[in-house]
Amino acid sequence: MEIYSDFKCHWEEALKHVRETIGDKDTYRRWIRSIVPLSYEKNTVLLGVADEFTAEWIKSNFEEVIVSSLKTVTDKTCRIKYETGHFPVCDEPECGVAVKSQDVANKVDAGLDRSNGCYNFKSFVVGPENRIAYAAAMGMVDTKSSALSANPLFIYGGSGLGKTHLIQAVANEVKNKKNGMRTEYLSCEDLLNQYVEAIRTNRHHGFRNRFRKVNYLLIDDIHFLAKTEKLQEEFFNTFNSIYNENNKIILTSDKRPSEIHGLESRLVSRFSSGLTVEIEPFGEETRLAILRKKQEKQEIKFDDDILAFIARNIYSDVRVLEGALFRLVVYSSIDNCRMTVDLAKKILNDYLEQQSAKRVNIEAVQKAVAEFYDLRISDLTGRNRSSNIAVPRMVAMYLSRKFTEHSLPKIGEAFSKNHATVLHAFRKIEKDRVKSEKMNRLVSQIERKLHAG
Ligand code: ADP
Ligand code: MG
């Protein structure tokens, strides 16, 4: 076995290469600096990471660059293995000391701030899908100048759409203002763990005091609350006491309050009593803006046609977009080649396959359109010509032509129409989208729902 301190030195040295390759400081800190080097034995490097997700992420996005950086330093090609349950003590660059999760839980209990410094308002890209959520979150910090400082603020939306980023931006902003405001930011799972621990160790009183006497209570993924009745009861009282003191509460969730299964109705009504805003799945333009932002800090920059290619073809959440972008960064830094759209297509092949597996069919279009306009599918496929049905029908034909591989006659068949009618509908909606901002917004909204499902 190599001597551990040797390995530590090699690891630190290799990290310099990794950092140069990745370029983006935030990414480096979030993903690479959080790795805990554990051992180097028989050409196998064991790395400690927080959880399975992180292991998978590092493996698919950064493993190649780690291996090649270690080779530069040690002149050996190693294999990498991961062990979950390890966290660095802090995220300062010099700090690489390993601790197991239990130690972290203790630190958290002692009041360690878990929010991530790089999640701030500046690095948050605003588009039509998250505009209101963004303004409302800003409004919570600057309560004097904003009409949008409703209490509580409840932000919901699918995974990877920036809820954690936004709520932590508030935590960081309040902290940076240093005006003596007391903030508690934590995930609902952490809250649950700490509650259980407080009960177990007879420190219920301390737990209560800690959360009820804050100026800002920020809880991420509040839907986890539905798991336990006892915590719901406790949280109900916490909520009331913060609210009655005019202090602020921000909650995030994957669903709106009324859709959280198992959440007590008195909490549903409390959570809905302020401002409830959705972050919607991102359209192509916002995806492109996010990619541009993410590459700002990177050394390797791609032409806009590469970014546009990713934005057009990967319609998943931002984590997947980031993954695709970083994979291109890693490949081009290793091969030192000029990135082209054709090459990107090859490198991102598996991402693109996953997307096309999700590709929409005519039934999915009909379902999405019917749901959106509150109609039945049979209305879309029937003969009724009244305009409140004719327009949605044309939109459905338009989307079927745009997003499925089917021919005009085949689409016509699905709507009991001929191919000329489909073509007419397609051209009409295409024109209307250009002419009318409202129509454009409406169709974009259906498109987003379609791709999110
Ligand atoms: P959620 O909590 O909704 O699942 P996160 O906040 O964890 O999503 O976001 C996932 C990743 O996407 C993070 O790296 C985050 O910085 C990034 N991200 C999401 N939305 C945006 C945005 N509007 N601008 C910049 N980055 C974003
Ligand atoms: Mg989150």
The name of the CATH architecture of the largest domain is: 3-Layer(aba) Sandwich
Q: What do we call the CATH homologous superfamily of the largest domain?
A: P-loop containing nucleotide triphosphate hydrolases
Helix content: 55-70%
Bound molecules: adenosine-5'-diphosphate, magnesium ion
How many domain units? 4
State the CATH topology of the largest domain.
Rossmann fold
| Widest β-sheet, arrangement of strands | 7-8-9-6-10
Low-confidence stretches: 89-114
Helix segment tally:
21
Mean pLDDT across the residues is 84
| Rg (CA only) | 25 Å
Q: DSSP strand (E) fraction?
A: 5-15%
**How would you characterize the largest beta sheet?**
5 strands, parallel
Summing up helix and strand content along with how strands pair, one would put the structural category as alpha/beta
Gist of the model:
With 453 residues, the protein is of the alpha/beta class.
What's the helix and strand layout?
Elements (H helix, E strand, L loop, with lengths): L3 H19 L2 H8 L3 E6 L2 E6 L2 H23 L4 E6 L1 E3 L9 E3 H9 L21 H11 L11 E5 L5 H15 L5 E5 H13 L3 H9 L3 E5 L8 H16 L3 E6 L11 H7 L3 E5 L4 H13 L7 H10 L4 H18 L5 H7 L1 H9 L4 H12 L3 H5 L5 H17 L4 H7 L4 H17 L1 H16 L1
Parallel strand pairs: 2-3, 6-9, 6-10, 7-8, 8-9
Antiparallel strand pairs: 1-2, 4-5
Helix pairs in contact: 1-2, 1-3, 3-13, 5-6, 7-8, 11-12, 11-13, 16-18, 18-20, 19-20, 20-21
The protein binds adenosine-5'-diphosphate and magnesium ion.
